[in-house]
Design goal:
alpha+beta
Length: 59
């Protein structure tokens, strides 16, 4: 029987800036991998998702 593996993440979005001309929002994204107690910052959701995917695939 395979052992149960769990990967938990907490994802927080913080508004970092808003461009005055376009109104485009820039976000700071903090991902915490719960099992490793590791926090990592990202600028895009794509980067955050890739990080989480890599942690899951490595476990």
């Amino acid at each position: 029987m395979e052992s149960l593996q769990i990967a938990s993440f907490v994802v927080r979005f913080q508004l970092a800036a808003v461009e005055k001309e376009t109104g485009k929002k820039q976000w700071r994204i903090k991902v915490t991998h719960v099992q490793e107690e590791r926090e990592t910052l990202f600028e895009t959701i794509e980067e955050a998702t890739a990080f989480m995917k890599s942690r899951v695939e490595d476990s």
